[in-house]
Amino acid sequence: MSSILQFQATYSRMVARELGLDDAGLTALLAGTSLTPQHLFQLDQQISAADQYLIIHNGLRLSGNPAFGLQFGSRLPVTSHGTLGVAMSTGANLRECFKAIARFQLLRAQFVRVSYLDEGEHFRIAMQLQVPLDEVGLFLIEAMVASTQWAIEFVLGRPVPETEYRLGYPAPAHAERYGEYLHGRCSFGHDTTALVIPSSLLSVNNPFSDPEACQQAWQQCERLEAAMRPRERWQARISSLLQQHPGQLWTLPEVAATLNVSPRTLLRHLQAEGTCYQAILDEELYRQALLHLESPRHTVASVAAALGYQDVSAFRRAFKRWTGHTPQAHLASRKG
């Protein structure tokens, strides 16, 4: 999961609520993260990509439900999306709802890119996952699909069984569960994930339309977007570059050359964004390491090689710097 991604704590609070966790359960949900339950319940708290990855990973284990992403997304109310949720739910019709999502979705869901295509009789909502399709990535795209259905049906005021769900990944082991949460025909193995609905639904009047509230929400979203845009630019580009070349330990000069800036200029941009190259690199390598260590076919040595380390001892030192313990200790704790 990209190091620059930030997640609203709202969603992790809702994971905790959906699981019905007590204090011990909250501790288990946050295991391995830098967060405490107090952090989680701060209204304006933002969660880093690495911490969010672990929260979802832990939540899946606690739920015991491989379809937890679908369950979670299908019960995620529009109001959970903050100001964007207000903009989505108070527009004149479904077309206005999608216009708000297209314009501002990065405020709430940086892990996916949403695009739209009017195909005449049908309207396609495409979703391109920006993180690897491991168990956490699958949770995220399933939750996104189910929550988009929720938003559509909220605006229309009814289920939409005429929706076609084209999933951009092979059928998971729990594929038969999709029908429990999605109210249309599902098919797997497409090039990208998309929801396809009749174009005629776009102009149906929204019974919750409120032009004044919608305008105010748009203005607030624009202010929030302007505040985050400088932070997004350089960190996002670096993170994307690292994800596109797994197994390569990029140096700062190599990254700067690829992005067509000098190392000094890149350092200055990152400093202005409150970060540094090493922090971005470490967080991406940490994410990749966790992913590989979850696979029973990997050893510590093979994970080191997969990440681009020539010396397994260098990987061990790096992992201890990231987590405070060795990869072997991490594996032992997972088995326990």
How does this model look, in words?
By secondary structure, the chain is of the alpha+beta class. It folds into two domains: 65-209, no CATH class; 229-335, Orthogonal Bundle (Arc Repressor Mutant, subunit A), CATH 1.10.10. It has helices at 9-19, 23-29, 37-40, 49-63, 68-74, 82-89, 94-104, 135-156, 178-181, 211-244, 252-258, 263-272, 277-293, 300-307, 312-323, 327-335, and strands at 6-8, 46-48, 112-118, 122-129, 164-166, 185-187, 193-198. A five-stranded mixed β-sheet has the order 3-4-7-5-6, covered by helices on one side. Strand 3 (112-118) and strand 4 form a beta hairpin. The longest helix is centred in the last third of the chain and has 34 residues, at 211-244. The radius of gyration is 21 Å and the shape is globular.
Question: Could you give the distance between the termini?
Answer: 25 Å
How many strands, which pairing sense, and closed or not: the largest β-sheet?
5 strands, mixed
The overall strand count is 7
Average pLDDT taken over every residue? 88
Global morphology? globular
Low-confidence stretches: none
Percent of residues in beta strands?
5-15%
Give me the strand/helix succession. EHHHEHHHHEEHEHEEHHHHHHH
* Tally of structural domains: 2
Structural class: alpha+beta
Describe the strand arrangement of the main beta sheet, using strand numbers.
Answer: 3-4-7-5-6
As a whole number of angstroms, the C-alpha radius of gyration is 21 Å
Helix count from the secondary structure assignment: 16
Q: What's the helical proportion of residues?
A: 55-70%
